[in-house]
Structure formats: structure tokens, C-alpha cells
Amino acid sequence: QKEVEQNSGPLSVPEGAIASLNCTYSDRGSQSFFWYRQYSGKSPELIMFIYSNGDKEDGRFTAQLNKASQYVSLLIRDSQPSDSATYLCAVAYSGAGSYQLTFGKGTKLSVIP
Amino acid sequence: EAEVAQSPRYKITEKSQAVAFWCDPISGHATLYWYRQILGQGPELLVQFQDESVVDDSQLPKDRFSAERLKGVDSTLKIQPAELGDSAMYLCASSFSHSRSPYNEQFFGPGTRLTVL
Lengths: 113, 117
What we know:
The complex is a heterodimer.
Chain A: E1 4-6, E2 11-14, E3 19-25, E4 33-38, E5 45-50, E6 54-58, E7 61-66, E8 71-76, E9 85-95, E10 98-103, E11 107-112
Parallel strand pairs in A: 2-11
Antiparallel strand pairs in A: 1-3, 3-8, 4-5, 4-9, 6-7, 7-8, 9-10, 9-11
Chain B: E1 5-7, E2 10-13, E3 19-24, E4 31-37, E5 44-50, E6 53-56, E7 65-68, E8 75-79, E9 88-95, E10 107-108, E11 112-116
């Protein structure tokens, strides 16, 4: 069973703080990892992807990957109320010669002004 | 900016009726996905196409669901007959990368919110 686990939250942080979102996955052979942001009633929006161990930064967002621990995280610096959304972690798993994404249930983030 | 198009955005139907959803992927994206998302859950893959061919439909309830992508561009997902438990958001996504690549960033359309009464 290929699983992706996230804390459902809600995670509340004050405006300007760092929000830390975590995700663990079950398949040690996984190679690619994605973070999506989903506002209420809207579709998921790709905000970050990471393929190699270490950190990847894009503006206020940093994705961190530790394949040995099967752990991926998303840091949001200088959190803004507009960051309030559900953040979905997705992992690409292989099956029958192709790759599919398995999503976690998402972590709901609330940024308090 | 290129986007995945879906229609309709909302659909209300009665159980036992037939419904159909349409998706037009980003131009040049050969891989297309249909997902179902229930409130409070992550999207779950229903079917994956590479061009006009089905790559994975292992999670598609084939007694009532069908999907096609006849010319390898736009796609239709059909439910017949609809059941109360089918109420969900139906999402279409596309990717430029081949289905055999793990580096397949997927971009979602706006979704179709289905309510079955």
C-alpha cells in the first residue's frame, strides 16, 4: 500500500511567522514529490516540486526532502493571510510501467492577521 | 497563460441519471488524468491517459464509469447511472511529461462539482 501521511491540522500561525508543513511517505523508492495549495472550493495549484535530497527555495516557499527518513516538508516564510489554504503533499509512485500521484489528505493552514 | 479547461463547473443530477464531464488539457500535454476528490480528502486517481490510450484505470468503477480520449486531446468522463455516493469534485489534470516519467508536474483544471440527489 503506497501511502502519504499529513497532519490534518488546522495549523494556525500568526502573520509574518514561519509555517511548517510535514509529510511522510511509505515507498522508499519514490523519486518525486509535489506540494499543492488548495483554496476552499477551488482546485489544487502546484506550488513546489522537489526531486533531490536537501532544500529547494522559491520565493517565500522552501521544500525540504529527506529520502532516508521518507520525509518531505514545506516551509512558508513571512506567512500572509492569503496563504490560508489546505496544502496537499503528493508523491509519484510507479505501477504497471507508469507513474501516478498519491495525495495526502492535506493540512489546513490558517494565518492569523 | 495555458490552463486546463473543464465543463460544466457545477452539475446537479438525480440518482440513476447519466452525467458527463469534459476536459481540455493544456496544449501539448500528452498525459491526462481524471481524479475524484471527496470533501476533506486528497484527490484520488480514477484514470490516466497517455495520448489516446488508457495507462491506468485500476481505480475506475467500470460498472458505472467510463472515460475516453479518442483523438488524444480532450477527454470525457461519464457516469451512468449516478449514485448518491458519487457526489464529489471531479478534477482533470494534465502533464507535459510522459506517463513513464516520475517527473510529471501535473496541472489541474477548475473541476466539476457534482451533486447527486
